[in-house]
Design brief:
It is a single chain. The chain is mainly beta and 397 residues long. Helices cover 7% and strands 35% of the residues. The strands form four sheets. The chain has a twelve-stranded parallel sheet, with no helix packed on it. Strands 3-6-9-13-17-21-25-29-33-37 form a ten-stranded parallel sheet, with no helix packed on it. The longest helix is centred in the first third of the chain and has 17 residues. The radius of gyration is 26 Å and the shape is elongated.
Length: 397
C-alpha cells in the first residue's frame, strides 16, 4: 500500500466494528480496561426513594423498598455524586435518639427532592405544597402545636432539639436541597444556625421553607467563610436569634444569591430581624421582608462593614420594626445599592422608619418608594442619615 492510500469507508467501519465486538466480548472497553472499571459516578447515579416508615427491604431502590426515617441520614452519606433522593411527605429527624448534635449532612453532588406522594415515576409529578416534606430538629417529637410536623414558631420548641437541622458545608452548586420545610432547630445555647449552616459551602436551595428555628446567631440560616448558595423561592418565617440575623446571617466573605424569597415575622435580639449582612456582597432580588423585628437595628435588613455591598433590587420592605432602621439599617461603611424597592409601613422607636444610614455608610438608592414609614424618636420617618452616613438618592418618592 502506498502512502496516502486508505481503506474504503465501508471496509473501515467493518474493521472498527469487528474490533469493538472483540473488545466487548472480552469484557474490555476502548481503553483495554474491564467495562466494569469504566463505570464512574455518572453510570452509578440513581434515584433513591424515602418514606417516613420505609417499606419492603428498605434499600431505597423503589417506593416499595423505600428507605425509612432511620436509614435516611446514613443513606445520604453512602450516595454517589449524581444520585437523587425522592422523599415522600412526612416528618424526618436526623436522629431517632436525643442526639442534639445530629444533623442532615448534605453530600457534594447529591440532590434531595421533597414533595412526593410516594407513587410518582417522574420528578415533575411531585407537589411540595400539597405533600409537605419536613426535616425537623424535634428529636423527641414533643414540640407543641405542630401542623404537618412543622414547628411554626420558636415558642413551640420543647425539650432537647437538634442544634442544626441541615448542614451544607463544603458543598458546591451540584448539591441540591429542594422542596423541604426545615424546622425546629435550636442552638440558642450553643452557637450558629438552628435551621441550616453553610460553612464554606454553596449548595443550590430551592422551594424550601425555614420555619421555627432558633439560634444564638442566625436563626433560620447561617452562611459563613466564603459560602455562596443560590437560594430561590424560599421562605424564612418565625425564626429567631438571640443576637444577629433572625432569618439569615451572612458573614466572612459570603455572596449568596437570593431570588423570590420571603422573610416573614423573624426576630433578632440585637440586629437584623430578617437578614444580617456583615462585610458581604449578596445579590437580593424580588424578595419580601415583612413583619420582621429587631430589638436593636434593622428590622428587615442590617448591612455592616466596608466590604458590605449588597445589590438589592425590586424588593419590598413592609411592616418591619426596630429601634433604628425599621426597614433597613446601613452601618460602618457599608454601601448597598438599593433599586426599585418599596418601603412601606415600617417603624422605628427612635430614628429611620424606612432606612437609617450611619457611621460612613453610603447607600445608593434609586427609583424607590417610601410611604407610611414612621420614626417615634428624633426623626427620619422615611430615611435618616446620621453622622457620617450619607446616601445618594435618585428617582425616589
Amino acid at each position: 500500500m502506498t502512502c496516502g492510500t486508505s481503506f474504503p469507508k465501508k471496509a473501515a467501519f467493518t474493521l472498527l466494528g469487528g474490533v469493538l465486538t472483540l473488545l466487548f466480548s472480552l469484557g474490555l472497553g476502548m481503553t483495554g480496561l474491564p467495562v466494569s472499571a469504566l463505570s464512574g459516578s455518572a453510570a452509578e447515579a440513581a434515584v433513591k426513594y424515602v418514606t417516613p416508615g420505609g417499606a419492603g427491604a428498605k434499600n431505597g431502590s423503589s417506593w416499595a423498598n423505600a428507605y425509612g426515617e432511620a436509614e435516611f441520614p446514613a443513606a445520604i452519606q453512602s450516595a454517589t455524586a449524581g444520585d437523587e433522593f425522592w422523599v415522600a411527605a412526612g416528618a424526618y429527624r436526623p436522629s431517632v435518639t436525643n442526639d442534639a448534635d445530629a444533623t442532615f449532612t448534605l453530600k457534594n453532588g447529591v440532590a434531595l427532592y421533597g414533595g412526593f406522594a410516594g407513587t410518582e415515576t417522574a420528578r415533575t409529578g411531585r407537589n411540595p405544597s400539597a405533600n409537605v416534606t419536613v426535616l425537623t430538629g424535634d428529636l423527641a417529637n414533643d414540640d407543641t402545636g405542630k401542623v404537618n410536623g412543622v414547628t411554626a414558631t420558636v415558642g413551640q420548641i420543647v425539650g432537647t432539639n437538634s442544634k442544626t437541622v441541615v448542614t451544607g458545608s463544603g458543598t458546591t452548586s451540584t448539591t441540591v436541597l429542594d422542596g423541604f420545610t426545615v424546622t425546629a432547630g435550636d442552638s440558642r445555647t450553643s452557637g450558629y444556625a438552628g435551621g441550616m449552616i453553610n460553612d464554606g459551602g454553596s449548595p443550590t436551595i430551592e422551594n424550601c421553607v425555614f420555619s421555627g428555628n432558633a439560634a444564638n446567631y442566625s436563626g433560620g440560616m447561617c452562611n459563613r467563610n466564603n459560602s455562596n448558595p443560590a437560594i430561590t423561592n424560599c421562605t424564612f418565617s418565625g425564626n429567631s436569634s438571640n443576637t444577629h440575623g433572625g432569618g439569615m446571617r451572612n458573614y466572612s466573605g459570603c455572596s449568596p444569591h437570593l431570588t423570590n424569597c420571603s422573610f416573614l415575622n423573624n426576630h433578632a435580639g440585637t440586629n437584623g430581624g430578617g437578614l444580617y449582612n456583615n462585610g458581604n456582597n449578596p445579590v437580593i432580588e424580588n424578595c419580601t421582608f415583612s413583619g420582621n423585628t429587631a430589638t436593636g437595628a434593622g428590622g428587615g435588613m442590617y448591612n455592616t462593614g466596608s466590604g458590605a455591598t449588597p445589590d438589592i433590587g425590586s424588593c419590598t420592605f413592609s411592616n418591619n420594626s426596630a429601634a433604628n432602621g425599621g426597614g433597613m439599617y446601613n452601618y460602618s461603611s457599608s454601601s448597598p445599592t438599593v433599586t426599585n424597592c418599596t418601603f412601606s409601613g415600617n417603624t422605628a422607636t427612635d430614628t429611620g422608619g424606612g432606612m437609617h444610614n450611619t457611621e460612613g455608610s453610603t447607600p445608593t438608592v434609586a427609583n424607590c418608594t417610601f410611604t407610611g414609614n414612621t420614626a417615634a424618636g428624633s426623626g427620619g420617618g422615611g430615611m435618616y442619615n446620621a453622622g457620617t452616613g450619607t446616601s445618594t438618592v435618585t428617582g425616589c418618592t
